Amino acid sequence: MQEDFQLTINGLSYRAAGTPLKMSLADFLKNQSIELSDGLVHRGHAGLLFFLIDFNACAGPVHRLIKPSRTSLISMAERELVAIDSRVEDPNESSLWVKLKAIKDSSKDEDVSLSRMISVGLEGLDDGQGYSLFSDHLSSAIRRNESGMKVSTKHLLTVPISVGRLKKLTYKSSEGELFYRPGTVLEAIRIRVLRQGSCFVGGGLFAEDGTSESGEAVFISLESIDELREIIFEDGHWIVGVCVSLRSFAERLKTKFPLVDDFCKSFRDTHFVNRYTVWEEFSSSGPSSGILTVLLSLGAEVIIDGLDERRRMSLEELLYVETLSSVGEQELISSVIIPEMKNSETITSHYQVMEGPYEKDSIIRASFLVELDPKNRVSDSSIWFDIGSGLPMRFESAEKLIEGRPWTRDLEQQISSVISSGDGIGGSLGLGEEFQKILIQNLLLKFINEHLGEVGQGPSRYEFIDLESELTVRKNS
Amino acid sequence: MSKPKEKLQSPLEMAFVVSPFESARICSIDFEEAAQLDGVHAVLTSADVIGKNNAICGLGDMPLFAEEEVEFIGNLVAVVVAERASIAQAAADLVLVDYKPKPPVLEIEEAIKLRSFHSDPQELCHEGSSEGESDELEEIDRSFVFSDHVCLQELGSVEVDVVGSGGLSVSIDASCDSLVLTNSIASLVGLNEEQVGVTCERRIECIDGRFSQLFTCAGLAALCSFKTGRLVRFRPSNAPKEMLSARSGQVQARIHLRHDSSGKIKSIDCKVNVDSGSSVGMSDSFRNSLIRHFDEAHSCPQVRVSCSLCKTNRPPSLIGDKDGIALGVFISEELIAEISSRMNGSIHSLREINFSHFMDDENLNNNVLRSRHELIKEAWDRLIKDSSYKKRQEEIIQFNESTPHYKRGIAAVSVKVGEGIESVDEDESGSVEGSRGFSFGSAVAEVQVDSLTGEIFLIRVDALQLSADELRPDLQISEMSASFLDGLRNYFFHGAGETAQELSDSLLLGSRAVPEELRFDLMDHGEKSVRFSSSVSYCLSVSVYQAVRKALSQYRKSLSLVDLPLILNPESVHTAIHDRDS
User: Fold this and answer.
1) Does A113 touch chain B (CB under 8 A)?
2) Cβ contacts of A354 on chain B, cutoff 8 Å
3) Mutate to test the interface with B, among A125, A358, A442 (most CBs of B within 10 A)
4) What is the pLDDT of residues A394-404, one digit of tens each?
5) Which CATH number goes with the domain that contains A428?
6) Are the Cβ atoms of A456 and B406 closer than 8 angstroms?
7) Closest Cα of chain A to B582: distance in Å?
8) Interface size, chain A vs chain B, as Cβ–Cβ contacts under 8 Å
9) Domain of B293: which CATH number?
10) A458 touches chain B (CB under 8 A)
11) Which of B2, B166, B257, B527 is 20 to 30 A off residue B76, Cα-Cα?
């Protein structure tokens, strides 16, 4: 057991000793007055972009953008980070405006639309920094785009050598909290059994806020268990470890499942996507990405590991028959299994309606999956709604409504005339009951329309920003 | 590892005693027990303020401590300074305040009824002659309510230490205007400005409501440090939520307007009531800029504007001059839109005959004015051309016809802000000094509304502003974008009850609030009197609102003017689409 650990930023090691578990990386940098910027403009993390050198579900190296104020210091133990000061103050800089105009004029190359650059620039803003840095990031994002991202190339494509060192590290904080990093699932469960009141944590330690009030806090990090961070294809099934980040999940599977592709469109917060995992969806009541509705529609199963046995059951059964709380003290949901999409006669869509453009949490999520028989009739369907409170709900009345009907343009008419009950969708979103009901019906209509009618696509916007691609913005069409 | 070389004196922490009542008389404050607690260095109340009991000195009026009465929930009564935050909090819990509650005034209507105002209403009155036109005049009566909402605050921790011969050194972990803060602190603790040094993360020359909470906190920390002679730290997490809640204050406006058959406005009568809260705060400057807007923007012969600041038992409102212009522009655009919907006239031609900055300058013999009018015209034309407004307008008509579930709307809006006017009252009609500065900008916004979900997508925004020579173009551009998004958030998309940090956070990261395409343009010109002002881009966000309204009117073709609520969320938009009968 040790009381300190190291983390590496831009190749320099920093030792953290006697810090509370929940201290954020930002606080650490600030308290220790660590200067990472040459410009001497910043103290701590202000104005810097931080990337964690990590590996993805295929063990390939990636650089994940993180928010220092939302990242626990301990979860950065023995990890390597890159910090980039995007504000290079250059007095000789010729008028940026001229350049901006040039970019604008040459915007045939759609990759550099200004809003894209702004969103890159905005990435660097952190909690509480306000808009003041907006300008700087905007300028720098533009500069970076122009210079073809010359920053810190030496850190690119490094192998995450630190991974090996992560294992079996146990850390004791100044406040007596314990932080374990087991290397296998069995080890993790053993620690859980041995240490009373301990709890598992996934990628972001902050998600566990308020779980243990008593002084004896024991956290078991699942992050360093290799098998939980893998996605494997086996016997017609995709097996997704629960500590796979949402980003890896989406990037790996979006070409395999159109529903996952749709799901990507809802990503707002890069930090969330980078640091949060499927596991958090099961275990925390915090922010949710809506991945459960997708998994439910895809007919996913879960594997629950125990000390001496392994259970496998459908996700639906786990959520509604067994309920999550029945996963025992000595058990851990270790992976999710998604059956491969076989025939092409499967039609899917995933929607998220946001409360407003500034919201990150949606007010409703819906996943639709419809299977057609050779006669183009609906043979099976799986329609799930998540209205933000509690578990997703199956919209069985709608499934019944379309079952056996021919998948043709008339369907919308038929549905519109029949639909009115909205059975099975209760709960309250703080929205008007009426609006909620209409919204659910409308989403069904939207789904049918999008696939059968000629509804134009709404603007789709999702792009992953990652150092992996050298911070240029990839546009997925 | 960079550890501090020697353990310096650790900062003292503060805890706050705030009012649980909306309105109450303070009969007594007993802090003897609290002061005797081990580790407590001082308990301060209004009696300990050496200088002026005003947190935003020079900007308006916002008392730091409650004196004889508390006037809103969260009104600061006392502050405890102690070795550690936990001790300070324990001591604050021991402070006994004897309140005698009084019935509070909470709403504008109540305040008007009880004649609870901060000052006499300020009025602007141009009574030109209507030149005997026999034309029958149309009348429009409209009421606007700008709801009260949480303002974005930038709060960071503050550390204050005593240096040298009784001076103060203040270090702030956020952006602020250090110069103004210096003056404010100096006046609070009764020092000279030279004796107060302020360093902040980044200096911005921008005073608006969102910084006043920071001023309060910094002022308090300074006072505590001055009194104890020690390093004192303020951390937002230690302050009670009620104390930090910042609100914009509700504004109600009633407009009575008359226009002739060509759409030319003949008279405007505008009565505005602002819920300023317990003290005037910065709402005085709100009032000035709102009145100034009506004075400058509308060319009609009769303009009457009166604005009252209502005194209620709520925290001081943080609206400032930027909001005054924004609401003024919003109201003007709404009026033009309403006239246009009644007459089926083009909005822009209505603007041309009603807004003084677009007016034909035949009757102007002032060269300066004429060149400005030409400049404005040129800027407007350039934006319309660059944004291919007309072409897109046609494309949108086709799009709307072919897609039943999505509708698009496009709107162009212009904003002119006059600057450097101290007082509106003394203005003599007709004579305009050549040296007076102004700024102008215009924006074209295109949106798409999904009728099935009520969601709004910002497709493209083009904005153009006149540039100022003395500022770097990149700064102006970034200022434009930030202010534009800020205006959007504040007036059209805000979510109620969110903390400032969540708000600023959610603006980031590819949020849909950032349009798919966002283009900003600056126009160079030879005009000396043009100043760049972020207020202009702030107000230009009204273009998005107007574009949404145009998109909605496609769903409800029977009505060309859709009654659209100020808050644009799926539910309100959905209601606006489907609420055919109202």
Assistant:
1) yes
2) 455, 512, 570
3) A358
4) 888 888 888 88
5) 3.30.390.50
6) yes
7) 17
8) 197
9) 3.30.365.10
10) yes
11) B166
Which of A95-104, A166-175, B166-175 has the highest mean predicted lDDT (pLDDT)? Answer: B166-175
Is A435–B571 a contact, with Cβ atoms under 8 angstroms apart?
yes
Which chain B positions have a beta carbon within 8 Å of A16's beta carbon? 1
Is residue A114 within 8 angstroms of chain B, CB to CB? yes
Instruction: Summarize the confidence of residues A378-405 as an average pLDDT.
Output: 84
- Closest by Cα among A354, A149, A121, A246 to B509: A121
Domain extent at residue A216: 162-221
CATH number of the domain to which A332 belongs = 3.30.465.10
Number of structural domains chain A divides into: 4
Nearest to A134 among B154, B458, B482 (CB): B482
* pLDDT for the residue numbered A136: 44
* Per-position pLDDT tens, chain B of length 582: 344 434 456 789 999 999 999 999 999 999 999 999 999 999 999 999 988 898 887 778 889 999 999 999 999 999 999 998 889 999 999 999 999 999 999 999 999 999 999 988 888 887 776 555 556 788 888 888 888 876 666 677 888 999 877 889 998 877 778 888 898 899 988 888 889 988 877 666 656 666 778 888 899 999 999 999 999 999 887 888 888 777 888 899 999 999 988 888 989 999 999 999 998 888 888 999 899 888 888 888 888 999 999 999 998 888 888 889 999 999 999 999 989 888 888 888 898 888 888 876 555 667 777 788 888 989 999 999 999 999 999 999 999 988 888 899 999 999 988 765 433 333 444 444 444 688 999 999 999 998 888 888 888 889 999 998 877 776 777 778 778 877 887 778 765 444 444 444 444 434 556 677 778 888 988 888 888 888 899 899 999 999 999 999 888 777 777 778 888 888 888 888 877 544
Q: Tell me which chain B residues have a C-beta less than 8 angstroms from the C-beta of A432.
A: 571
For residue A130, the chain B residues in CB contact (below 8 A) are 152, 154, 174-175, 504
* SS3 of residue B197 by DSSP: strand
* Residues B399, A456: C-beta atoms closer than 8 Å: yes
Residue B332: inside a domain, yes or no? no
> Are A459 and B459 an interchain contact pair (Cβ–Cβ within 8 Å)?
yes
Same-domain status, B477 and B552: yes
Regarding whether B273 and B391 lie in a shared domain, the answer is no
Kindly determine whether residue A130 and residue B152, on different chains, have CB atoms separated by under 8 Å: yes
Q: Which of B154, B477, B574 sits opposite A128 (nearest CB)?
A: B154
Q: Which domain holds residue B239?
A: 12-102+151-244
Contacts of A127 in chain B (CB under 8 A): 501, 504-505
Cα distances (angstroms) measured from residue A303 to each of A111, A317, A406, B204? 41, 12, 36, 55
Closest residue of chain B to A35, computed from CA coordinates: B2
| B506 and B381 both lie in a single domain | yes
Give which of B448, B484, B508 to mutate to test A binding, by max A Cβ within 10 Å: B508
Whether A380 has a pLDDT exceeding 70, the answer reads: yes
